[in-house]
Amino acid sequence: MRTMLDDLELPNVQEIATHDRRVLAEQKPPGMAGSLLQNMGRRPARLVLWGVATGPEALEFVEELDGKFRTGDPVPFVADIVAEAEIEEMVIDDLEWQELAGKPERFAYVLILREYIEPDEPEDTSLLDSEILDDAEGLINDLVEGLDIGLDFATGLERFVSPLGDLLARFQQFREDVESADEE
């Protein structure tokens, strides 16, 4: 079976490594020796693939792969190693590719893929208070208006720059005068 990422066949895949992690929560009940572990499910599976693209279409392949990486959208993934894991879509977390010296039209690539799990929609949205959104929008609008006033305030301070500009120098001179008077 071929290794496919969306509509791209990944050529010459030399190695695929999988990384799975289970999430366990440790509970320490009061008055008991030891603890209990609660299985919280698993994290999204991660795959690392190494391969080499060769031939006249190799550069086009890595550029298309780079385009899929930059969009960040989940894409269908098919490979023998993950067939039993029931992974349907993956997100390209990282992509590295380089042209191999000594061989024209030959590129090595490394992909790090993360399983995409569709977020669950809230079951009952009637419990959400629609007034909260209205309040938040009002606060944001007030904040934006306040930022406009802040710009006027900042430009209004320009007239004080020259009178107060040498204030520090005058304080330093005054301190030196006081110190010299104390020494005499």
Structural overview:
With 184 residues, the protein is α+β, with helices and mostly antiparallel strands. It has two domains: 4-27 and 39-115, Beta Barrel (Elongation Factor Tu (Ef-tu), domain 3); 128-183. It contains four helices and nine strands. The chain has helices spanning 58-71, 130-156, 161-165, 167-183; strands at residues 4-5, 8-9, 13-19, 22-27, 36-42, 46-54, 75-78, 89-99, 106-115. Strands 2-1-7-8-9-6-3 form a seven-stranded antiparallel beta sheet, with helices on one face. A hairpin with a 6-residue loop joins strand 8 and strand 9. The longest helix is centred in the last third of the chain and has 27 residues, at 130-156. The protein is extended, with a radius of gyration of 31 Å. The termini are far apart. The model has no long low-confidence stretch (mean pLDDT 83).
Computed CA radius of gyration, to the nearest angstrom: 31 Å
Q: What low-confidence regions span 5 or more consecutive residues with pLDDT below 50?
A: none
Total strands:
9
Fraction in beta strands: 25-35%
Q: Give the H and E element order.
A: EEEEEEHEEEHHH
N- and C-termini, Cα separation: 96 Å
- Oligomeric grouping of the chains: single chain
Helix/strand layout:
Layout: E1 4-5, E2 8-9, E3 13-19, E4 22-27, E5 36-42, E6 46-54, H1 58-71, E7 75-78, E8 89-99, E9 106-115, H2 130-156, H3 161-165, H4 167-183
Antiparallel strand pairs: 1-2, 1-7, 3-6, 4-5, 6-9, 7-8, 8-9
